[in-house]
Amino acid sequence: MPRPAQAKPVSLHVLGPITLYARGHRDPIGSNLRPEVHEFLALLAAHPAGLLATDIADKLQLEPDSIQNALKNLRRAVRRALRAATGVTGQEFILLQGELHKLHPELVETDIAQFSRKMKHALSVQVKDAESEAVSAVGEALAHYRGPFAQGRDYLWADAIREHFATQATDAVLRLVRKAEQPGAAPGVQESVLTMLEQLSTIHPDHERLAQHAIRLYQAAGRHDAARHTYTRLKRHLDDLGVEPEPATRALIAPRSHARQTR
């Protein structure tokens, strides 16, 4: 999936692996930053209004007697990396207002902010019941959702944030699914919704409701091999978790399997 256009000097991606981009550069920057610097940036991205030093110290589990020095080192590491990559030397990428730390809104854009803005628009469109416009709006939001928040990082403070954005993404698509499954739904809408279901199923392969709806839509389109593949993928991931698919999920596939066996 191509990366959305970048408008500000730095683009910070935290929906998926934590990744930094400098405007005009195709490849990521800051890959050599220490893990704690990436965590610091992800934390600030998740709190665009800013966080107090004490809150940051609590989340990052900084030693009480070295909080100010640790935060100064984190800001310095960000400053060095981003100034070198962007050439912006006259401004700070992390604003410090008293004890409040926040990403500079004119220098750093985040996929969280873009996702949230697009999703808010998508929700307003869905309320108006504008089907094709809603599909387009949700698709634009999902372009920024490339994976769970801080994917691959086991931050103690991140679980609730990760769940929040996962729920936003899946709920938006599930609302579209209800329209796509109705008789007379436009084929283009069904295909777009299937694409979104596949995207989210790749990110959340054990999400059973996503798989159920994908199976139904594939079957309605006569794409039974794709439906079977979706079920097999779900079962494989649930097996890894030591659980079985729900009876309702198995029932979507079982009649067709039984029909083949009795021929």
**Could you tell me how far the N terminus lies from the C terminus, measured between alpha carbons in angstroms?**
42 Å
User: What is the N-to-C order of secondary-structure elements (H for helix, E for strand)?
Assistant: EEHEHHEEEHHHHHHH
Largest sheet composition: 3 strands, mixed
Shape: elongated
Strand order of the largest sheet: 2-1-6
What's the helical proportion of residues? 55-70%
Secondary-structure-based class equals mainly alpha
Low-confidence stretches: 257-263
The total beta strand count reads 6
Integer-rounded radius of gyration: 22 Å
How much of the sequence is in beta strands?
Answer: 5-15%
| Arithmetic mean of pLDDT | 90
How many H/I helices?
Answer: 10
